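We read letters as residues; the integers encode the fold. Take this protein.
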Amino acid sequence: MASLRPTSTITRLANTLSRCAATTAAAPAPVPREKTFQIYRWDPEKPGDKPHMDTYKVNLNECGPMVLDALLKIKNEQDPTLTFRRSCREGICGSCSMNIGGTNTLACISRIDPDTSKTIKIYPLPHMYVVKDLVPDMTHFFEQYASVQPWLQRDTEIDYGKEQLHQTVKEREKLDGLYECILCACCSTSCPSYWWNSDKYLGPAVLLQSYRWLADSRDHKTKERLEKLADPFSVYRCHTIMNCTKTCPKGLNPGKAIAEIKKLMAKTL
């Protein structure tokens, strides 16, 4: 009888698996949860094409939780011509910045509202030239960023790799809330002052980056940096509307950084 036990065990296991398979096969299919997305479309290569909204439906049961997941699903399965930027999917690169439901944010960290009765409307960042669909032209934005010379500048020669440029804990803490900026431009494109004066006003994102170096104890060019900002437009078009701070997907405070620049200018120049 002992020799029959393994066979008996195998038989019981097979019966259990059969019952599980039967139960699974009998389970009803989940009810589709179709979410409607309206997406801004414009193709400059199509003669006569004008900006318009296209409508897509996505089954949330077969889609990831973020808006970027839905955009990728639409592009892969419904419309390969849909154009947008994306890279890291972790809120680090800033590539997928766009206007979702009226708010400038990152598609990769913006959750899809599970209420299928509500439509999600997606536009490119506002008040910027559009390259195609959801892709804004960031050329001017990055030219402004380069204008503030966003790198460490010293009065003395640096022997790179030989020794560190030390900071105290308090000096290092001054950079918190500044270095985390990913240059997604969500804040700048939410600012009415930047909408109307972007040719001369640097905007919240660039000024936050400028203050990041003004606040760095290792940098020796504070006065020179401030002198480059000392005109009626570069900084002073900020009217503390604070849209920038409200919309920042990283939870930073560009409005405070701009106020600190104004204080430094009043004290130094």
Observations:
- The mean pLDDT is 92.
- The chain is about 35% helix and 10% strand.
- The first helix runs from residue 5 to 26.
- The radius of gyration is 27 Å.
